[in-house]
Write a structure and sequence with these properties.
The chain is α+β, with helices and mostly antiparallel strands. About 30% of the residues lie in helices and about 10% in strands.
Length: about 325
């Protein structure tokens, strides 16, 4: 059983697509429609020289959390569900005061997300790609519109239908001995905060079920979780060139709802076919869906890896005999 870290995010993506299908919210909806605390959220404008100094300090001072000098301005428009699902909301780790470390024991999505809503944002909504905890806000909205705690929603709507019998935020005591050790990981321990961004524990078997459902355009074991159109929306470029400009991506890839998408395999040089989509986690897990080859991949290791996913993708591609 593996610490999934950010490999938790595509689970949230599927949960969000389910709610969108059911008309409980729309990507264009302002978050303040469901969480009023987001109304009037401010944007932090950073002093460029101080920002450069802060980045330099981060390289030399472990645990540095101070933000550079900034001033607050009004947001040009409200944050939307689309912004959150694409990491273009401005809710990122750079915003002053918005670090996961200041969460307190006993916090839940219901208690923590209103604190996030105090802001400020790191940039104007929809203008940049910035990795952060915005997906936790989506998880809270799912709780509100479904009337069900987020962990119960994914258990009932995703884990149970896909027979993901070893996927948890809190691992039962009789299964703890199966967890691999990852020095920076706290996944699997008792918690009240069920994040849409991180924290799940899973297995290769379980996560392959999840990826195979996406290969099958939303269905597995006779259980339809999503319509094909929803899978397509999730795995289609939703941010244009913002992902590339963020420096996170290489040429030939784009970003959909919670997943990276291969657009041009020749430019991407990632070994994946055009249309493949997936994500990974800091603990080393990598997974993707390849609709063209009808292929699901889940790589489970428990240490950070640089290019393991690329090398395995290239080996898989070379092994396919048309």
């Amino acid at each position: 059983m593996f610490h999934m870290a950010s490999s938790t995010k595509p689970i949230l993506g599927v949960a969000a697509m389910m709610v969108i299908e059911e008309g409980l919210f729309a990507p264009s909806d302002p978050v303040e429609k469901y969480i009023p605390e987001f109304k009037g959220i401010k944007v932090a404008v950073f002093d460029e020289k101080a920002d450069k100094k802060t980045k330099a300090d981060k390289k030399t001072k472990k645990g540095f959390k101070e933000a550079p000098e900034y001033r607050l301005i009004d947001a040009h428009r409200p944050v939307t569900i689309h912004d959150l699902l694409t990491h273009t909301s401005g809710i990122s780790g750079r915003a002053p005061g918005r670090t996961q470390e200041i969460q307190h024991e006993g916090d839940t999505l219901a208690t923590w997300i209103p604190i996030v809503a105090e802001g400020p944002l790191s940039f104007q909504p929809g203008t940049r790609w910035g990795y952060g905890a915005g997906l936790d806000v989506v998880a809270r909205v799912i709780e509100i519109v479904s009337g069900m705690p987020f962990n119960e929603f994914v258990q009932k709507r995703i884990f149970d239908p896909l027979d993901m019998k070893d996927t948890y935020w809190i691992v039962p005591k009789d299964k703890l001995h199966r967890m691999l050790v990852f020095v920076e990981g706290k996944a699997g321990t008792p918690t009240t905060y069920f994040s849409g961004s991180y924290g799940l524990v899973s297995t290769a078997r379980d996560y392959l079920h999840f990826e195979q459902m996406l290969v099958n355009k939303g269905v597995l074991f006779g259980n339809r979780l999503l319509n094909p159109a929803s899978v397509e929306m999730m795995s289609t470029d939703q941010v244009g060139d913002l992902y590339d400009k963020a420096g996170k991506a290489s040429a030939g890839v784009a970003f959909g709802y919670t997943v990276e998408v291969t657009v041009d395999p020749a430019l991407a040089k990632g070994g994946r076919s055009a249309g493949s989509f997936g994500w990974g986690g800091a603990a080393g897990t990598v997974s993707w869906t390849d609709p063209k080859e009808e292929l699901a991949v889940a790589i489970m290791v428990q240490q950070p890896t640089k290019d393991l996913g690329v090398r395995i993708a290239e080996a898989i591609g070379a092994a396919i005999d048309d």
